[in-house]
Amino acid sequence: MAPRTRSLAADSPWISESNVVVVTTTTIFGCGCHNERWAHQRHIRDATGRPGRHDRFLPAVLATFAWAFPYQYRPEAAPGTVVQVDFGSGGAWLLTREAGGWVLGEGTVPGPAAALRMPPGMAWRQLTGLPVPAGGYTTEGEDRLVAPLLAVRSIIV
Length: 157
Hints:
Blueprint: H1 26-29, H2 34-48, H3 58-65, H4 69-72, E1 82-86, E2 92-98, E3 101-106, E4 114-117, H5 120-127, E5 138-141, H6 143-151
Parallel strand pairs: 1-4
Antiparallel strand pairs: 1-2, 2-3, 4-5
Helix pairs in contact: 3-5
């Protein structure tokens, strides 16, 4: 099944600087609430010490969460600047600065202007606003490009 996309007009009341953009794809998960349900279930399993088998969905969850980056990542940079977000086995994405803003793509590139690398088990926590230990991830590049990467939230739980 081909992915479905939906566009919102720039003047839509759903788009603003303060809104957190959550993108879900029914073609990947079968329902729009999968990511939120997955995160809540993971919180409960972590709290009760019952790991379960749902981590098999983590790469798909992170692929959806990654769509928050081009909407919330806002540092100024020259067109053509590339920033790497690498969640190991959970996926890797590029943010490329274009005239209209940052554009998300998949993959890696040698020598990005900035990079955030973190294991997938930590990435979902970071992107849902949970605390993560500073030593559990690595960053490269100028702080003005790195710090906003750590501020992105894909879903608030």
